[in-house]
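Good morning C.,

I know you're traveling, so I'll keep this short. The sequence:
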Amino acid sequence: MSEHFNLNSPSPVVTLPARLDKSKRGKVQPLPADVAEQLRPYLDGSRPIGLFGATAGSEPGRLRR
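The tokens, ready to paste straight into the viewer:
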């Protein structure tokens, strides 16, 4: 999945390949620089996957206060 992200370009993007796109044309979605910065550690494997404080063993349906 990380191959769909280009976070090192001046304008970071995520690309949906045509084979996965309903219109079969592919899509390119620009990402804000701060979002790209936060995604980088997850995509390079240096941080465990767990967005918003959740981990694989936590209760995903429960809101955190």
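Safe travels,
E.
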